[in-house]
Amino acid sequence: MNKPQIKALLYEQVARISKALSSPKRLELLELLAQGEKTVESLARESGDDVKLVSAHLKALREARLVVARRAGRFMVYRASGADVGALLATLRDVAETHLVELRLALAQLIDAEAQLTGVSREQLLEQAQRGEVLVLDVRPETEYRSAHLPHARSIPLDELEDRLETLPADVPIVAYCRGPFCLMSEQAVALLRTRGFRAARIEDGVNEWLAHGLSVERLEA
Amino acid sequence: MNKPQIKALLYEQVARISKALSSPKRLELLELLAQGEKTVESLARESGDDVKLVSAHLKALREARLVVARRAGRFMVYRASGADVGALLATLRDVAETHLVELRLALAQLIDAEAQLTGVSREQLLEQAQRGEVLVLDVRPETEYRSAHLPHARSIPLDELEDRLETLPADVPIVAYCRGPFCLMSEQAVALLRTRGFRAARIEDGVNEWLAHGLSVERLEA
DNA sequence: CCAACATTCCAAAACTATTTGGAATGCGCG
DNA sequence: CGCGCATTCCAAATAGTTTTGGAATGTTGG
Description:
Two copies of one chain form a homodimer. By secondary structure, chain A is of the alpha/beta class. Chain A has eleven helices and seven strands. Chains A and B meet through α1, α2, α5 and α6 of A and α1, α2, α5 and α6 of B.
């Protein structure tokens, strides 16, 4: 057994993972899957890509063991193969944000700094939510909420928000979140809430960022 | 500004990082750089690759901002662009080890389970080292030790170990470490120490694994 | 069993990455 | 200055990835 061969072997296995993560499309798909399980068709719809293409990318993710698939009737249901996958995604994004100016600039342009909740740590937010001093609002589709959500969060999917405004308290500040820093649903939710006179802000975190920082989340399903 | 374009832009930036990590050679180089700064020539020597090839890979890493270079006379000195890079590497390897059976098998074949220290947590090891109940031994080249090492660790590079055996205590168990789980220097050190009658075991951790788990390390240089 | 459907397989075209050889650059020392 | 050295640039050969169209597979419900 000579050394160069061994080394190449080990690093090749690790590279299987990073290769799988090296395409923007696969990162997007994996981020969706990190929110909960999905069918190929729903992933295609949400990512805006052709089903065949999505299927090909899912195959690559499957071969790297980052996702697993199961059959449910005529559908294939995919999910991330563990919580560590979401955490890896979050770590990767953090490194990208730290070192790539381009990414920071693009994000800054995109996200209204005004809408961003500032000066409150995750732990502080958790306490305030527990005491009812803020309302933590999950604006993702309800299935994703059921799969996992921040502690004390209430679910109102973005497309139902307008119809359900009267169920929100006028006197408690609202903190909206969605899938993570690149997801703009919470941004839109805050915009809507503010025009209707609510005090609202968004946080960048989603469930996976929360988990990556060692905090726990709530689940409604096994 | 329409959404599909924006998304592609953001994920493309993140993919720049994972693309840079998607080649076994670059992973190896980055792991070496995560131990401390190195010249192109020393990286080529340690990785066993051609200088031109190493230079090309370093360019890719530089473009992803994972490493930075500075000129020192006729040499270019490269280093990882932050501690988060080493932590990302450790996270990536953890995910690979968790999900890829091939990697676990290759590692198990390679590493004598006997030599592995078991049942002791990082924190316990730290306490025992502080009280002098074990000797933590860093067998990497001395420059890497000076750049960063585990708390209370003593430096004896692998190729000097045989000559310096008499400086080691016969009655205190020795725990050797090197660059991380894929580095076999500590394995060889343990083999040598055991044939000479010392009680010795290795740990998989290196400096970056230590940091990735939120523990601190010691440094001798700015 | 057949029709409808979700998904995957296969092959071709377009594109991108890796490796190598040879030439060029940039620095320091005599 | 100019020689030697470390490194990078350039270009060509090779190998791999992404995307698309069309055909095949497997499953449910009639």
